[in-house]
Amino acid sequence: MKHIGLFGGTFNPIHLGHIQVIQEVKKGFGLDKIFIIPSALPPHKEPDGLVDAGDRIEMIRLSFSTHPDFSVSDVELKRSGPSYTIDTVRHFKSILPEDTELVLILGLDAFLEIDTWKSYKDLFLLIPFIVMSRGTEGEKRRVFARKTVEDYLKSKISEGYKISASQSSYVHEIKQPVFVFDVTPIDISSTKIRKLIKTGRPIKSLVPEIVEAFIKSKGLYL
User: pLDDT above 70 covers what percent of the chain?
Assistant: First the structure.
């Protein structure tokens, strides 16, 4: 049986923060592989400043070219219309062996909007979640993140969710578990990187060198 993670986003552009946290999740949960899945048309983000999907996926491929346990998937780029997570989860369930254990990886902010997603109730029946929290800044932050997730689950998803003995997951009799995982807090965002490029400032310590070279060669985000 293989344990495989799904990690989606616009990755506009991918940066060292993305790479750091996803490596921490893979190690922390003993995942065999993680699929990085760039979205074509994200339904919850304005497409303003979104560079061509081909450029975004190439930057991801360059970033993980020496990491065989990370694969880049173009499933959402090939699909017409907005990129809905429910469709992507169903796709991977249809193509992977039946005994594959899939898990959906996302940040805390994204998770707290999940009740606005297409068919979100079905998602909780289909796949477990790993919610990344930047909780290593201190115990108060860690407790706050777990309380936030718990309150959200009970108010928006189901009152049937209960904390498990491990204190890192919420379980339900019918729905899939939700894990809260602390990742290293890193002050990098794609928005910040785009602003720096636009104003002619360096991004050297924010993206892999090979991605920085690609952005410069293509004149992206100017």
Answer: 94
| 9 within some domain | yes
Assigned domain for 211 exists: no
Give 155-187 as a DSSP string. Answer: III-TT-EE-TTSSEEE-SSSPPEEEEE-----
Q: Is residue 47 part of a domain?
A: yes
Cα 202–203–208 angle (5° rounding)? 140
CB 77 within 8 A of CB 38: yes
Work out how many domains the chain is built from and give that number: 1
Tokens of 61: 């491929």
- Alpha-carbon span 149 to 81, nearest angstrom: 30
* 161-208: pLDDT as tens digits: 999 987 679 999 999 999 999 999 888 999 999 999 999 999 999 999
Q: What angle do CA 28, 12, 118 make, to 5 degrees?
A: 75
Q: Which range marks the domain in which residue 105 is found?
A: 3-189
Q: How far is CA 199 from CA 56, 149, 193, 202, 214, in A?
A: 21, 37, 10, 9, 18
